[in-house]
Write a structure and sequence with these properties.
mainly alpha, Vanadium-containing Chloroperoxidase, domain 1
Length: 312
């Protein structure tokens, strides 16, 4: 399988080594040092930050084709960084929504006087606990894994997947801050009154996966969550949905399984009591908008490259 040769036009081609490559490496090292310093200063440098910094440093020092990989993969890296930095913006969020979102869900999708997420709490099945738990673990690796695989197959598609991932994430963060909302599990524990800012993160229905498999994956994961009131939109759904849309544009054979997986994640979000159906719909909307933004950026990059070639 050959990577799409035409995709090289979408990233800056380094002049013949060693001078050009060293300049790119130097700029990348400065950017990495800036990230490490800012992260340490604003939130403290954790283990996962060290892993990211270490891998990035290794790629920079490796040079050659790996620098091109880093350039094409950078939207995925920026997605992780921006999501992590949301914890610094929580104080800027708007009024927290609890009862209005619950009431809308009940009116639109109520089952015997219950919202679907709460109805599922009394209609659980061990096989579904396992399948939805796995989906809730794997969801994040769909855009990441797709981007990595596409480096060896179709680099233009790789860049589109990364850009759609990043744009979707940024749109989701904007919604998080403008419409912070309590998830279904919160209502079960704290009720529909004013938002309890002391509420602690909860694995909700995902704890059944932990109990079934004999691990504490979700229990420990949600202990570290920085945003209890981030139900709207469901980025669990939005991330793989953005990848499915990008693949539909360029790699249609991979689109169907990714789209089916996205539907599974959307169901899992409700079944595990982490999201309302409305959150899932909003996640799809963010993915669609993110994909459209990414396509626009791709077209702009291609036009710019074509103009540069015409002026050469």
């Amino acid at each position: 399988m050959n990577a799409d040769a035409g995709s090289d036009a979408l990233v800056a081609e380094a002049p013949s080594p060693p001078t050009g490559e060293r300049r790119i490496q130097a700029a990348a090292l400065v950017a990495l040092a800036f990230y490490v310093g800012i992260t340490h200063w604003t939130m403290g440098f954790r283990g996962e930050h060290g892993v990211l910094a270490g891998l990035t440093l290794a790629v920079i020092l490796k040079g050659g084709k790996w620098l091109k990989f880093l350039a094409l993969f950078s939207p995925v890296i920026f997605t992780g960084i921006t999501y992590d930095y949301v914890r610094l913006l929580v104080s800027l969020r708007g009024e927290i929504h609890v009862g209005d979102l619950y009431g809308a869900e009940l009116a639109l999708f109520g089952i015997n006087g219950m919202i679907p997420a709460h109805w599922f709490e009394s209609h659980t099945y061990a096989p579904l606990d396992f399948i939805t738990g796995v989906a809730y673990i794997v969801y994040l690796y769909v855009p990441m894994g797709s981007a990595i695989a596409l480096f060896w197959i179709d680099r233009r598609a790789m860049l589109l997947v990364g850009l759609a991932f990043l744009a979707t994430n940024l749109l989701g963060i904007v919604v998080y801050l403008t419409y912070p909302a309590a998830p279904p599990w919160y209502v079960q524990i704290y009720g529909l009154g004013p938002a309890n800012l002391e509420a602690i993160p909860n694995a909700a229905g995902a704890v059944r996966f932990d109990q079934l498999v004999g691990v504490d994956y979700f229990t420990e994961f949600y202990k570290r969550s920085a945003n209890v009131f981030g139900a709207m939109p469901s980025l669990h759904t939005a991330y793989p949905a953005s990848t499915a849309l990008a693949l539909y544009t360029m790699r249609k054979k991979a689109w169907v399984p990714t789209a089916l997986f996205t539907l599974l994640v959307g169901f899992s979000a409700v079944y595990l009591q982490h999201h309302y159906i409305l959150d899932v719909v909003a996640g799809f909307a963010c993915a669609l908008l993110g994909w459209l933004v990414a396509r626009g950026v791709m077209r702009a990059l291609e036009r710019r490259r074509n103009l540069e070639l015409a002026d050469a």
